[in-house]
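Posted in: Protein Modeling Q&A

I'm a second-year student putting together a small comparison for a lab meeting, and my supervisor asked me to include a predicted structure for Protocadherin beta-10-like. I've never done this before, so apologies if this is the wrong subforum. The sequence is pasted below exactly as I got it from our records. If anyone can share the C-alpha cell output, I'd also love a short note on what stands out.
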Amino acid sequence: MLMSSLSNVILENSPETILAVFRIKDRDSGENRKMACYIQENLPFLLKLSVDNFYMLMTEGALDRENTSEYNITFTVSDMGTPRLQTEHSISVQVSDVNDNAPAFTHTSYTLRVRENNSPGLHIGSVSATDRDAGTNAQLTYSLLPPPEPHLALASLVAIDADSGQLFALRPLDYEALQALEFRVGAADRGSPALSSQALVRLLVLDANDNSPFVLYPMQNASAPCTELLPRAAEPGYLLTKVVAVDGDSGQNAWLSYQLLKATEPGLFSVWPHNGEVRTARLLSERDAPKHRLMVLVRDNGEPPLSASVTLHVLLVDGFSQPYLPLQEAAAEQGRGDALTLHLVVALASVSSLFLLCVLVFMAVRLCRRSRAASLSGCAVSQGHFPGHLVDVSGAGTLSHSYQYEVCLTEGSSGTSDFKFLKVIYPSIHAYGPGGKSEGNPTF
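Accepted answer (user: helix_wrangler)
Welcome! Here is the predicted structure, written out as C-alpha cells:
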C-alpha cells in the first residue's frame, strides 16, 4: 500500500474534501493479484476507487470538531486468492477548529443581591459563559451592554471584569433610592469574525436599617407645642390621641412599636405598642394635676434597632365647652403679647388726647378773639338815597320794595374802610286799603 498524498489535519465544516490519495498493489498474479480496499463503517469518510487501484479518501459531509476532534481510520486491503491475504494501515486525522459557535452563558438570567451602604469595589457576583470552540475562538471577553434607558448611569454604579466576569459595585447603593437594577452583560469570543451572546442581570439592593422612625403627629418642629384636651369625666380606655410615625426602611426594619417612657402621672396613661394610641388607664380625680407631659418612644424592629421620641402635652378640662387654658409657657408668652398691646393702646390714646386738647385750645382762642372784637365794634345805618316808601312802578299793582343795608364797621374805621359785613334790613310791608291808601305806615 503506497500513500501518494496524505493530510492528517482538516478544517471542520469542509464537505467533500480529499484527505488522501493512495495506490495498492499485490506482487502475485492472476486472481491472487486482485484486491479490495475498505475502511471501517460509521465514519464520515468515503473511499473511492479511480483507476489502476488508485483510491481517494474524502469527507462525506461537513465535520464538526465540537463532536469529534480526531478520527483514527484503518485501511484494510485483501486479495482474492485462496486463502485470502490482507493487510491494514491506520492514519489519524485531526479536525481543526472553525469559529462556528457563539459563547453561551451558564444561565440566561442572573439574580444578584447586595446590601445597601456597601463598600465601594465590593464583589457582588459573577457571570460565566463558555465557548465550544478552541483556541482563540474560545477566549471570551465580558462587558456591560448599554442600557435601554439613556438616563441610567449604569457605568457609575457597577463594573465587570473583562476576563473573569466578576461584577464590583462602584459606589455605595441606597435602598431608599434604588431597590432593583436590571442590565445586560455580553460575552464575545476572539475569533474572526467574533461571535457574542448576552444575559440579563437583575441586581437587588437589600435594605439595611439606616433610617430612624419619623414622627408625623404630633409635629415636633412646630412653633408652639400641640396640647391635647382631656375631659375630667373621661372613662378608662378613653382615646386621647394617636402617635403617627413612619420609617423609610422596609420589611422588619420598618415595623414600629410604641412605648411610654415618661409621664407626669405614670399610672394615668398607657400607650398601645402596635398602633401608638394613647389612652387613659383609670378614672381621673380632683387630685390629678391639670397639666401632664408624656414622652413616647417609637422604635423599629431592625438590627440594631433605631428609635425616636415625641413629647405630648395634656390639659385636663371640665368639658370641651370650657375655654382652652394654655400651658404655663404659652400663657406667659400670651401675657407678654397682651402687655405690648396694652402699651400700644395707651400710647395711641395719649397721642389722640393731646391732639384733641390742642384743637380745643386753638378753637377757644379764636372764639375769644372774635367775641372781644364784636363787643368793641359799632354799627351805623346808612340812609343814603334809599326811599322809605313803596312805589307802584309796574301799573299792575306790583309793589316795589325799598331796602336798607346795615353797615357794621370795626372800631377806629373810617368812611373809606372796608366793610366788615353787610346786612340787609327788610321793611315791614302794609297792604293798601280801598282807594289806594295805605292802611299803615311802612316801618324799617
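A couple of things worth pointing out for your meeting: Residues 261 and 385 are 113 Å apart (CA to CA). The chain has four domains: 2-96, 104-206, 216-329, 379-436.
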